[in-house]
Amino acid sequence: MKYRRFGRMGWQVSAIGYGMWGMGGWTGSDDAESLAALQRAVDLGCNFYDTAWGYGAGHSEGLLGQQVRANPGKRLYTATKIPPKNFKWPSRREFTLDDCFPPDHIEQYVHSSLENAGLESFDLIQFHTWEDSWIADDRWVRKLDDLRRQGLIHAIGISINRWEPWNGVKAVKSGLIDAVQVIYNIFDQSPEDELFPACQAHDVAVIARVPFDEGTLTGMLTKDSKWPEGDWRNTYFVPENLIPAVERADRLKPIAAAAGLTMPEMALRFILNNPTVSTIIPGMRKIRNVESNIAASDAGPLQDELHTQLRVFRWDRRPTEWSQ
Question: What is the mean pLDDT of the chain?
Fold first, then answer.
């Protein structure tokens, strides 16, 4: 495992971190399997773990706490997210701070998440939705600064809405946040336009999420893919999304094969080419996925020629009713 600096916090975090959404609320999750995968990641050097209250109403946070307690001699960085008060994802322009993150709600859910995990503090607390207009209302930062002084949290971050990397630039430039979490992958390269330069200038850490485009960049989905009733992916992969995403991923398969790479490895190593990224958080529920994803860190960034070849696959999408 290779490590990268986590912005102004100076933490040395694993280039491949761990996204814990799938083990909190997706169908097919099994706690024993999840804990085994988490432990394998720890053993292989992964030290950054990202969860949220919204991942199973605290269930994923509980698994993270178990893993931290099972490894008392290792420094594991813990990150979670406060859900919006109105429980609506993604945020919308008309939502106010009082709709989503009034001070009392912030305090309530920091304590709730700490209780779920059985931890005394989180390294990073993030808002699970964000509107840059909230920068003008300083109640949120005053409350988080108070919680930080109490030692309950150590860094502050935001999770940016899908396909809206511009909607976090003001927050970065304000100097009030330490980290941003944003979708960044072979298809979604738009964070490079404004967000990443701002993060570099203000020494804000970048957490790259959805490295596999919710699965299409693994090469495993087809135009007929379906999931059990109640699985979030059924509402996201509507035909107008699934079909063009699979078609684009299929065009990547011969490129990966010619380079002697699997699709997931190519997807992760593409992101590693960008030094602004502090850590990547693929979702991993099985040991074999942990091992293959962490191996991408060992291999490092792609060769320049291949990276350049993949840049033409940029796909600028706009939020819709289904792009939660």
Answer: 96
